What does this fold into?
Amino acid sequence: MKGLKMTIAKHTINTILDTLGENDFVNVIAYTDYVRYVEPCFRGTLVQADLDNREARMNGQGSMCNQAIMLITDGAMEDFESVFEEFNWPERRVRVFTYLIGREMTFAQATKWIACNNKGYYTHISTLADVQENVMEYLHVLSRPMVINHDHDIIWTEAYMDTLFYTKAQSLLLMTSVAMPVFSKKKETLSHGILLGVVGTDVPLMEVMKLAPRYILGPHGYAFLLNNNGYILAHPDLRPLYKDGKKLKPKPNYNSVDLSEVEWEDTEEMLRTPMVKGETGSMTLNIRASVDKGVRKFCTTKASYSILLRVDCSRLKCVILITPAHPQ
It folds into this structure.
């Protein structure tokens, strides 16, 4: 694959990666006469489709229900029936979506057969202008079981920067969005599983933090918020902006800061692991705190944690931290 076909293929890959989020896991494999991982250090594994890894793809625990292979090719010489019969049939747990690149239709039949016999979808992309519209077709196929089963899953997005009011146009705030799917309930199309779209609203994270019981925090306690991947949504030590001249700009990857980067536990991840698993309770553990007295030092102190708020449908966790007045 060379020239315009290669350009269309790369654009198709980037468009697919843009549809993935931090709850998805992905890898990119190139093949001709042999198989080659685009990123050698991710050989034989799937990596989280967060901003860092998506950019690594461009430059060189998922939904728990969907497994898919996206086959981007300029033509399949055969249908590889024996391979699918050995590894994917009869359960067909892995869907195969095929994208035929270019104007030639010589090998279209085999490419279409692969998709149709593995619960996938066949798409023909002949020009760059066709990429965006055709790539999105796989989302409708993956959503059909959810629509047919009437699963109104509620999701919360990763944190992002936005303005709250027009009067605060210069004031950037950390926001999240809560969303749920909208299905077609027409009798004639009910069995087709048609996803009409998504309905949602923006929620300032400072409004969520108001749910924390501040009356029990005391002068040395604080609350913080993180998602099911262990990424910080709100924390006193999270500084998502930097000053560029007279303007404040978001830092790169400000919304993918892990809890372990701001809460320095002395030994193993005793706090992060149970939180990501969705456990509740309280614990006392040693953490590292910084103290400025002319020289910046790291001191060890004991802190009590209580996981007070956990909304199952949203996978948001709120934690209360109570520390002593002076580190030991």
Observations:
- The helical segments are 3-18, 51-59, 81-87, 108-116, 131-135, 137-148, 205-209, 272-276.
- DSSP finds eight helices and 19 strands in the chain.
- The radius of gyration is 24 Å.
